[in-house]
Design goal:
The complex is a heterodimer. By secondary structure, chain A is an alpha/beta fold. Chain A contains 9 helices and 33 strands. The N and C termini of chain A lie far apart (47 Å). Chain B folds into 2 domains: 264 residues, Spore Coat Polysaccharide Biosynthesis Protein SpsA, Chain A (Alpha-Beta Complex), CATH 3.90.550.10; 84 residues, UDP N-Acetylglucosamine Acyltransferase, domain 1 (3 Solenoid). In chain B, strands 1, 4, 5, 6, 8, 9, 10, 11 and 12 form a 9-stranded mixed beta sheet that branches.
Chain lengths: 426, 372
């Protein structure tokens, strides 16, 4: 068997708590993006498009939907005998208690056996949280050319933003001499994208050493500084294309909305760097004789009888007669009933919005329970929720679960209010 | 009641379809916005729990082989059974093309002899319908038939019974006579070219007729043995259509604009599957106006699309108008174009300000890859 040159470890266990109810039942990498994709489809597709055919996906938080989505890797042609995709969940080890993944590097440390079994020369560490297209093979070329022990992909950000990131201070050859995590006074604008290529022997040693010191071993906090201290060769690889962290409700909404432009910054319509998704085959979409659809992305299997403007609609959504959807994101298999009006909302998978419901109206009052999460006027409906007929819902509201009319005072949910009866584990 | 499936997808296209089938098999004709004709029979087989299916190809087989290059979309990518694609091949003592439908099965007889399923379902790859073949196998067993032929009363349809094999059935639906494309049809019951037969009987019949230099399933088995064998008709009254001429091709596609047809094929229970293409969602720009339209993924719409079917990755630019037309995958329609009653094949580029206007009786066909 041919030796695997580079193996990918994809960290997909994070919750992404700032996405609120969107990540209450699934991990952030399993959140829908751009109509038919899940966020993890972007790094997964980048892997196969870069020729990386052995991918370990590390799951932890709410892994069910992620496991189902990845399956045996068919959408990415990762259903392989030699390599392919492997889901790596935290597990009990012989005779001992099992451990959760307590940090990014700890998660890799706990799977040294998987990597050793594949015996790669290099390992690329990815996260399942970002929207971007990147050729990892070019980054590997850079790694080899500079004889690096570690190559860290970086983005040039403005100095104001820089204090939100891990910042690389590098010399004129982009050799890193210092790393600062979220510095108050950043000395450079090279922000880590959380994408690392390690020469496996070096990483292996570092992981084992660090595991004795830090039980919550983390790449940014522990591994990278330790390797710098030991005089290893670390380089920054500058990435100049589109890269988005869709970590908040507002940034998630904005990044989706950007796609509907006639010339968006992020192009999904490229033949030679396709993004693959696990959309079980869906029929073409249908727009009826009365439908109005403008400035929107509509996925396969939708049936539109009403109006959709400036929105992103996932697969299998039904928009009934007279319903109006504006500036919104509607995820898979939702039904928007007759006469409903939806303005600047995000509706998660499988929800049903009743007849003549009005959503996203009224004053922009931040959410009372979680003002830090819902504060830009966007109302969010959780997955598999029901909104009864004829109710009115304000801005920054959250509805999660099978809500009934008696939960709406005078048929209304005022701006900033929450109805959360979902997420109950039975 | 285990069964094998055989899909006959090798026939030469009808002269009447020639503009669309110069380079593709009829079974590979694009249908309903993202399917190919063979997807329907293949999905029917898979949904009927038939786990071993042979597709026999001959004419213009490249497009079909491309489509079937992986069988996993129909859950037929298996170690045991799964999908077999048979094309004519040369051996030391045989250098024939398939000389007929029966010969095409006979030349792959080991598919039958090396199996142990009791029944064989033989179907054509050109028809559009949804069917659980176990219904007809059950009927076959109940009737204790040697061969059961799925058939349909064409009395109230837009089909011309002269185009079909016409069956006369007695009161028990036993076939008493069969005429292929008769000048003077004695009944309105048309054979749909879907047969159920015991595997062992099929092997025996094929060996017999080939030794007599007879090669055709209909002429040399159904008609020749019509009195010797117990042949029954299974009268089907669901939706069924076949791509035997341009009008039928347009009608089949336009049928997908009807909700009940879409529900039948695309929503209710068993799905029709096809090879996925990984196109992004369709995008509607500011000038988009799509009414009563089916649009494939990856398309970008910026003009009028009325009463039409657009396949995947069709780009229409502003002020263009497409009405009552079919536009296949990867075609581009320029600004200010007017397209009416037309069939635009794949990868056609129509530059700005062009008018292509056909009539319902005679739609204009633009061949694959044309640049206008």
């Amino acid at each position: 068997m041919r030796k695997k040159e580079m193996l990918a470890m994809l960290l997909a266990g994070g919750q992404g708590s700032r996405l609120g109810v969107l990540t209450s039942k699934n991990a952030k990498p399993a959140v829908t993006f751009g109509g038919k994709y899940k966020i993890i489809d972007f790094p997964m597709s980048n892997c196969v498009n870069s020729g990386v055919d052995t991918v370990g996906v590390l799951t932890q938080y709410q892994p069910l939907s992620l496991n189902q989505h990845i399956g045996i890797g068919i959408p990415w042609d990762l259903d392989r005998k030699n390599g392919g995709v492997t889901i790596l969940a935290p597990h009990v080890k012989g005779g001992e208690q099992g451990d959760w993944y307590s940090g990014t590097a700890n998660a890799i440390f706990q799977n040294i056996g998987y990597i050793d079994a594949n015996d790669p020369e290099y390992v690329i560490i990815l996260s399942g949280d970002h929207i971007y297209k990147m050729d990892y093979s070019k980054m590997l070329d850079f790694h080899k050319k500079n004889n690096c022990d570690v190559t860290i992909a970086v983005l040039e950000v403005s100095l104001e933003e820089a204090s939100r990131f891990g910042i690389m201070n590098a010399d004129e050859n982009d050799k890193i001499y210092e790393f600062e995590e979220k510095p108050e006074h950043p000395k450079s604008n090279l922000a880590s994208m959380g994408i690392y290529i390690f020469t496996w022997d070096e990483l292996r040693k570092a992981l084992i050493e660090d595991s004795n010191i830090h039980p919550d071993s983390d790449f940014g906090k522990h591994i990278i500084p330790a390797m710098l201290n030991r005089g290893k060769s670390l380089y920054a690889y500058r990435f100049k294309d589109y890269w988005k962290d869709v970590g908040t409700i507002e940034s998630y909404w904005a990044a989706n909305m950007e796609l509907k432009k006639s010339l968006p910054e992020f192009n999904l319509y490229e033949d030679f760097w396709k993004i693959y998704a696990n959309s079980e085959h869906q029929p073409p979409l249908y727009t009826s004789a009365d439908a109005v659809v403008k400035r929107s992305l509509i996925s396969e299997g939708c049936e539109v009888y009403g109006t959709v403007e400036d929105s992103v609609i996932s697969t299998g959504v039904i928009v009934e007669e007279g319903a109006v959807i504006k500036d919104s994101i509607i995820m898979a298999n939702c039904v928007i009933k007759k006469g409903a009006l939806i303005d600047r909302c995000i509706i998660d998978e499988g929800s049903v919005i009743g007849e003549n419901v009005k959503m996203g109206i009224g004053e922009n009052i931040p959410n009372v329970d979680k003002p830090k999460i819902y504060n830009t006027g966007i109302t969010v409906i959780g997955s598999d929720s029901v909104v009864p007929d004829n109710v009115e819902i304000g801005k920054n509201c959250v509805v999660f679960g099978n809500s009934t009319i008696d939960m709406y005072k005078d048929g209304k949910l005022e701006s900033g209010q929450t109805i959360d009866i979902g997420g109950i584990e039975v | 009641m285990k069964a094998l499936g055989i899909i006959l997808a090798g026939g030469q296209s009808d002269e009447r379809l020639k503009d669309l089938c110069n380079v593709r098999a009829v079974s590979a004709m694009p249908v309903g916005g993202s399917y190919r004709a063979i997807d329907f029979t293949l999905s029917n087989m898979a949904n009927s729990n038939i786990k071993k299916v042979a597709v026999i190809t001959q004419f213009n087989s490249r497009s079909l082989h491309d489509h079937l290059s992986s069988a996993k979309w129909w859950d037929l990518g298996r170690k045991q059974g799964g999908l077999f694609v048979f094309s004519p091949f040369l051996t030391n003592d045989n250098s024939f093309w398939f000389r007929g439908t029966a010969d095409s099965i006979y030349q792959n007889l080991s598919f039958l002899t090396k199996s142990n399923e009791t029944y064989v379902v033989i179907a054509s790859g050109n028809a559009i319908y949804k069917m659980d073949y176990y219904d007809i196998i059950k009927y076959h067993v109940e009737k204790d038939a040697d061969i059961t032929i799925m058939c349909k009363d064409m009395a109230n349809s837009d089909k011309d019974v002269h185009d079909f094999g016409v069956m006369q059935l007695d009161e028990n639906n036993r076939m008493v006579d069969f005429e292929e494309k008769p000048v003077d049809p004695q009944s309105t019951i048309a054979s749909l070219g879907i047969y159920v037969i015991k595997r062992t009987l099929l092997i025996k019949l094929l060996e017999t007729i080939i030794s007599e230099s007879r090669y055709d399933l209909v002429k040399d088995i159904i008609i020749r043995y019509r009195r010797k064998l117990n042949i029954y008709g299974y009268v089907y009254d669901g939706y069924w259509n076949t791509l035997n001429n341009i009008k039928a091709y347009v009608n089949v596609n336009m049928d997908f604009l009807k909700k009940d047809i879409r529900n039948l094929f695309l929503s209710d229970g068993a799905h029709i599957e096809t090879k996925p293409k990984d196109e992004p969602p369709a995008k509607y720009n500011s000038n988009a106006d799509a009414r009563n339209a089916l649009v494939g993924s990856g398309s970008i719409i910026d003009g009028k699309v009325y009463d039409s079917i657009l396949f995947r990755k069709v780009y229409t630019r502003e002020n263009s108008s497409i009405k009552n037309s079919i536009v296949m995958e990867g075609s581009c329609i320029g600004k200010n174009c007017v397209i009416e009653h037309a069939i635009i094949d794949k990868q056609v580029v129509i530059s700005d300000d062009k008018k292509i206007i056909g009539t319902p009786e005679k739609p204009i066909i633009i061949s694959k890859g044309t640049v206008i």
